[in-house]
Design goal:
The chain is α+β, with helices and mostly antiparallel strands and 99 residues long. It contains 4 helices and 3 strands. β1 and β2 form a beta hairpin. The two termini are 30 Å apart.
């Protein structure tokens, strides 16, 4: 895992989280997650924090042979254009601007 695998380098404004085993899913704003957990938290550690109360993860802890939790970041599996909050949906990204 590299420094790019931290929340600070997450490429989208909204962090979508889903489970491959159940229908559980959630959306979080990147800024709120960074404020709560810190921007340097590894994405794997963030997923562990968010899925702490998952029943599949609890089974894994108790039995040791359960399938475990299927939590993932689906946006990283299937790249797509960056998403914007609803109020900013009409804005465009302008390349070549000055800093």
């Amino acid at each position: 895992m590299t420094a790019r695998d931290t929340l600070a380098f997450y490429p989208f404004v909204v962090v979508r989280i889903a489970c491959r085993l159940c229908s559980r899913s959630a959306r979080y704003r990147l800024a709120r997650l960074a404020a709560k957990y810190g921007p340097e938290i590894r994405l794997d550690d963030l997923l562990l924090q968010i899925s702490y109360d998952c029943m599949y993860r609890a089974d894994e802890r108790k039995k040791g042979d359960a399938r475990g939790c299927g939590i993932c970041l689906p946006d990283l599996d299937q790249p797509r254009p960056p998403d914007l909050p609803p109020g900013m949906a009409r804005l465009r990204v302008v390349r070549g601007g000055k800093e």
